[in-house]
């Protein structure tokens, strides 16, 4: 049995992944140890942690009672990360990908589990130079967590479309507004989780895979959404990392509202073929962001993201369904080049 710590309904925890950038060259630097050490002497509403690449720092909030409180804590964490970085000749930038970086050339953080992961996954691991926004929503029990996951899953491509913020990868315009979503496809166990009937089936699958030794535990499954029983949460991993902290706050608010709605909703019918609709919508959201069409979760109809956003079961607050942050990156890049995009990301990441 997987350890469970459920019992806190609709609490919020947020993880952001920020790039560490040389203040003069605007190139990535493998300085996560410097930022983590600098945070140890500060009293913060969360922690600074390592990620796969040493040029990325993860900001993790303390458990918050509301989305608004989580945003306040993220603002403080971003400011602390920026201050520590500046003291050492660096700055930080938030985006789903860093425009001029070649991920395979970036240093891996000196942590054993990351080294083991790279040894197993090889080039598909080293290419994971992308950053996501991970949102943990507290759940009362395992069955509720599973039911909420299945209820919100068909709407998550809309969240991805609104969050798209990674049009550049390895120094080029990829033609995708969220190349991050596609880069994650290089990993084993990505995209939507398989269709399970209930939490018990999900747990049996995880235990079977871990028994083979090919996965350490459920955190080795890089799905877009997954139960996190040790935290007692549902972890939504769909969105690109936002540049504006206000955009992060709006995405956190949207995901929190979807989970609150889903708790009170009846279970969706068990229809494994719906995973095919999800994959189509996920790709379209990655390719076009808010400018594409997605299949309606409950009808045989393709709608624009803006039209579908109007049919979300919760209000859309603080997000423009007609645009996304990738649009700004492309506008700046086409006008002034990738160095200007990098400078803009740095400027807008810590307000």
Structural account:
It is a single chain. 41% of the residues lie in helices and 15% in strands. The strands form four sheets. Strands 1, 2, 3, 4, 5, 10 and 11 form a seven-stranded antiparallel β-sheet that branches. β6 and β7 form a beta hairpin. The protein is globular, with a radius of gyration of 19 Å. The model has no long low-confidence stretch (mean pLDDT 96).
Main beta sheet: 7 strands, antiparallel
Query: Residue-averaged pLDDT, rounded?
Result: 96
Strand content: 15-25%
How many angstroms separate the termini? 44 Å
Q: Shape from CA axes? A: globular
Helix content: 40-55%
Structural class: alpha+beta
Number of domains: 1
Total number of strands: 13
Oligomer: single chain
Q: For the CA atoms, what is the radius of gyration?
A: 19 Å
CATH topology: Creatine Kinase, Chain A, domain 2
Query: What top-tier CATH class fits best?
Result: Alpha Beta
Order of helices and strands: EHEEHEHHEHHEEHEHEEEHHEEHHH
């Amino acid at each position: 049995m997987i350890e469970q710590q459920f019992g806190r309904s609709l609490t919020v925890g947020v993880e952001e992944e920020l790039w560490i950038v040389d203040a003069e060259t605007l190139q990535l630097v493998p300085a996560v140890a410097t930022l983590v050490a600098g945070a140890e002497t500060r009293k913060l509403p969360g922690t600074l942690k390592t990620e796969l690449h040493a040029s990325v720092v993860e900001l993790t909030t303390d458990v918050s009672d509301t989305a608004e409180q989580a945003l306040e804590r993220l603002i403080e964490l971003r400011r602390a990360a920026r201050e520590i970085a500046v003291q050492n000749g660096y700055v930080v930038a938030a985006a789903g990908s860093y425009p001029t970086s070649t991920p395979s050339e970036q240093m891996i953080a000196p942590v054993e589990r990351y080294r083991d992961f790279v040894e197993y996954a090889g080039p598909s691991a080293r290419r994971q130079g992308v950053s996501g926004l991970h949102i943990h929503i507290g759940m009362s029990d395992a069955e509720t967590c599973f039911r909420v996951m299945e209820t919100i899953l068909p709407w998550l491509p809309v969240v991805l479309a609104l969050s798209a913020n990674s049009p550049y990868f390895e120094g080029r315009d990829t033609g995708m507004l969220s190349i991050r979503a596609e880069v994650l496809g290089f990993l084993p166990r990505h995209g939507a989780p398989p269709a399970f009937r209930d939490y018990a089936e999900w747990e049996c699958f995880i235990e079977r895979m871990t028994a083979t030794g090919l996965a350490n535990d459920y955190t080795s499954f890089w799905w877009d959404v997954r139960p996190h029983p040790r935290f007692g949460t549902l972890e939504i991993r769909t969105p690109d990392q936002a540049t504006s902290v206000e955009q992060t706050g709006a995405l956190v608010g949207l995901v929190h509202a979807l989970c609150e709605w889903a708790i009170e909703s009846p279970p969706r019918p068990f229809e494994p073929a719906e995973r095919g609709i999800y994959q189509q919508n996920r790709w379209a959201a990655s390719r076009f962001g808010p400018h594409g069409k997605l299949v309606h979760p409950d009808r045989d109809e393709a709608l624009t993201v803006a039209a579908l956003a109007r049919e979300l079961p919760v209000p859309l607050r603080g997000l423009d369904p007609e645009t996304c942050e990738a649009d700004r990156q492309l506008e700046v890049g086409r006008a002034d080049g990738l160095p200007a995009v990098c400078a803009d990301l740095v400027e807008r990441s810590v307000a």
